Amino acid sequence: MTLSIWRYAHFTLAVVSSLFLLMASITGIILAIDAVGQKLPQYRVENFEEITLSKVIPAVKNQFLEVNELTVDHNQFVTVKGLDENGEEIEGYIDANSGKIIGKSEKKSEFIQWVTSLHRSLFLHDTGRIIIGINAFLLFLIATSGTILVIQRQKGILRFFAKIPNEGWNQFLHVFTGRWFLLPILIISLSGTYLTLNRFKLFGEDKQDHKEISFPDKAPEQFEINAFKTFQNIKLSEVQKIEFPFTDDVEELYTLKLHDRELLVNQFNGSILSEIKYPKTVLLEALSLDLHTGRANSIWAIILGISSISILFFIYSGFTMSWRRMKNKIKNQFSADESNIIILVGSENGSTLGFANAIKNQLVKFGKKVFITEMNAVKAFPNADQLLIFTSTHGLGDAPSNATQFEKLIGELNFFKSIQTSVVGFGSTNYPDFCGYAKKVESWLQNQTWNQTIIGFHTVNDKSVNEFVEWVKSYNQISGTELSTTPAQYVNQPKALQKFEVISKTVVSEDCQNYVVTLKPSKKIKFQSGDLLAIYPGNEGKERLYSIGKVDGKIQLVVKLHESGLGSNYLYQLEVGSHFEARIVENKSFHLPNKNEAILIANGTGIAPFLGMINENSKLLPLHLYVGFRKETPIVKAFKYSLQTYLLNKKIHDFQFAFSREGNHCYVTQIVQNDAEKIASLLQNGGVVMICGSLAMYKDVIVALEQICIEKTNYNLAHFQANGQILSDCY
Ligand SMILES: Cc1cc2nc3c(=O)[nH]c(=O)nc-3n(C[C@H](O)[C@H](O)[C@H](O)COP(=O)(O)O)c2cc1C
């Protein structure tokens, strides 16, 4: 809970100030580069730190007819203003040892002036300065709340720089840069805030005036300037500016503006006539300017520039993470009180909620009354029969922030009837206590009188969809539901889409609603038969997946046109030659193992990946295809025709068709059963069985295979499943 408060604070502050921070970072990078660039022409003298005014002032006076002022800038370059021997006005950098001009003083370019003005005040004068000042302070708060989040995440200040487990590129980037750039960002934000406050004199101004000086009527004797004690004691490095006396009038003085004080010095004997010390606010302002602009030190200027770049990274990675978190929201079609299945979710960053939502949506489609909520909202749901708990682990074996109250609440509640439960732990083996919190949840449930565990504790490492599908399969078996066991169904984050061209498409008939569509990716991409093509029809963000057969390097899909099918209608209405966007989803668990004999079992459109696998079988592995259709329609005849060609090329060893409405009047399960001996020996010799098509067919085939295993091998089907010899992609 506390974590959430800091996270909300961090996020809200970032949202409020992001546009300003974006502008301030980009202009800050430019100004940092300028600050480094300014130091490149070297007008700084070697002995800058040692040389005193008793050397510099006579040297300068020697070179010019008249000297008005001498300034020393933050680059330690000395500029003189005055008149040359010809009485011409002159302004330039000098060598402080000789007083000679060594370079022309240059004004800042218009571009840099423009950027500076945007950075400081958004061209809005005082109003702009206030806005920028507020944002500098917000940056300070963001950095502070971010530090607290890193400390909480790393479990203590002492572990601040401990290894960051890999939780995705964005999170890694955010935490990594956060730890290294925290200090410069705090300095940038505090100095920026101070400069604004000081500009509006919010710290008061206790600047003194010089005291009244009484001058003699007659000018005293002129001593040698290099003998002035005052000038001998002041180094050039202490000076900001020297204003020279205009004439040899007795009231004309040297005004020495040093870093910490201002002196009025007698031009005849060097005595100090008045001295005022600058107030602390002025000293702090100079320090803030040095720290905020990097003007005094090029290494610091480079650090400031890199820190500004890091702020851009923060904005990008922070918003990407938050978007992912928010994307997986809780939405319910049924109320808590009317629902029979309750899904409780413990999730910090939203990925577990993504898995839970995928299950909820499917169960609702199958007509179940399901309610999904966070674990902290657990209660004695009046109509609940089943409690599915999906939880991640955070900290070091701790609860995610929306599950922190669960232990207390579950200890207090009673359903007064038996409730079926199943716990799935989401975690990462990068952490010492893998799924530690989920394990605790499982043990708390075991202590409840009402608990009836229906599936043993399952874990999912690193958001692995394949591991999650194992739980889905167990759930399907126990509950009799037909939730999708296609891993890609649970992939949470759609990646960048690619363009595909429609190369050819067959037409459907009254007899046959299946059609074949061939596609070519616009750019070269890697894919293979058994992968999936995800399409997004109707711009509604809905995803539809189709099994790919790679035939002659192109994507071949076999699709059944459903009357109100979103995906099948979308693909069917695409013209040959037109383009559309989709993405390939790698489906490693349904790739043809490239050294084994294989039995391929399909019904209907499930033939698609197998046609591709056979086409690609350049190693001439012995492949046996069993496929079921209703009737021998023209499209099925075309499949048969190409299979006969593959037979001649030895790309397939044999194939059998089952027709449920004509011919041999049987289902594919039956032709599988007929070949029990062959299947048993293939499995015992390490071969694989791949199944693609409807879930109903899958269930029947699995029963048939179970029987074959028991009767004809020394093992049950689970043995071959565990060996990775039974692969499926059914829907
Ligand atoms: C700060 C932090 C601490 C974590 N601690 C653990 C842990 O102790 N044990 C574990 O198995 N996984 C740990 N994880 C991994 C997460 O549980 C895992 O990535 C999970 O899939 C995240 O789910 P969520 O996005 O729903 O929060 C941690 C992750 C983070 C970011």
From TrEMBL:
Gene Ontology molecular function, alphabetical: flavin adenine dinucleotide binding; FMN binding; NADPH-hemoprotein reductase activity
E.C. code: 1.6.2.4
GO CC, one annotated term: cytosol
Keywords: Flavoprotein, Membrane, Transmembrane, Transmembrane helix
Domain FAD-binding FR-type: 495-593
Domain (Flavodoxin-like): residue spans on this chain: 341-476
Membrane-traversing stretches: 12-33, 130-151, 172-197, 299-319
Main enzyme class: oxidoreductase
InterPro entries hit by this protein: Cbr1-like_FAD-bd_dom (IPR008333), FAD-bd_FR_type (IPR017927), Flavodoxin/NO_synth (IPR008254), Flavoprot_Pyr_Nucl_cyt_Rdtase (IPR001709), Flavoprotein-like_sf (IPR029039), FNR_nucleotide-bd (IPR039261), OxRdtase_FAD/NAD-bd (IPR001433), PepSY-ass_TM (IPR005625)
Pfam families linked: FAD_binding_6, Flavodoxin_1, NAD_binding_1, PepSY_TM
Stated name of the protein: NADPH--hemoprotein reductase
Top-level taxonomy: Bacteria, Pseudomonadati, Bacteroidota, Flavobacteriia, Flavobacteriales
